[in-house]
Amino acid sequence: MTEQDHRVRGVDHVAFPTFDPAATVRFYRDVLGFPVVHSICAAGWGPEDHPDFIHFFFDIGNDDRIAFFYYFGTTPEVGGASGEKGDVYARFGGEVPEYFVRSRHLAIHVDNEEDLLEYRRRLDASDWPVEMQIQHETIESIYTHDPNGYFFEITRAMRPVTPQEDLDANLTIDALLDVVAEPEPSFGKLLARKAELIVERAADWEQVAP
């Protein structure tokens, strides 16, 4: 595969629907301290049956933003929020594993442990206390659900990611694509294919090594 030049400069914004704009503003602006930086009041956009709405944005640092749509007159039932688990838009039946439901989430990063614990303090003093604090392989994160049921993470790096780990990530993805193209993919098959790719590519790495 030919490598494409990389031209993007990060996230402009991610956007979600909300049925409770007041609680959403309380959570992001008043509890977390993310300032409101933009809003769009839209009447009559789209087809005739499109409701009036407000689209509002919070600054999450680095010129990135999280945004919400509030559609006037739209209820959770109209929005499709049926089921026992999930958020205001995508809900799942009670039989769906929690790990699957929680895989849909937004993660915002901070510089250090002090900042992470400050956000933990703010959340724990609010109506949305931290539900989990976990150290992963290279990061430490706190988690909660926002007023809309969106799973929300704040994370900090515990150490830098090395170039070798970037190489490993690409090997893993190449192996994954090969494995899922065949019947009955499994974690064991992924590791076996990754080992094969390491053997196949080792000679090329030796040629470019300093």
UniProtKB/TrEMBL annotation:
PANTHER family: GLYOXALASE FAMILY PROTEIN, METALLOTHIOL TRANSFERASE FOSB. InterPro entries: Glyas_Bleomycin-R_OHBP_Dase (IPR029068), Glyas_Fos-R_dOase_dom (IPR004360), GlyoxalaseI/FosfomycinResist (IPR050383), VOC_core (IPR037523). PROSITE patterns: VOC. Gene3D superfamilies: 2,3-Dihydroxybiphenyl 1,2-Dioxygenase, domain 1. Residues 10-157 form the VOC domain. This is VOC family protein. It comes from the Bacteria. Transmembrane segments: none annotated.
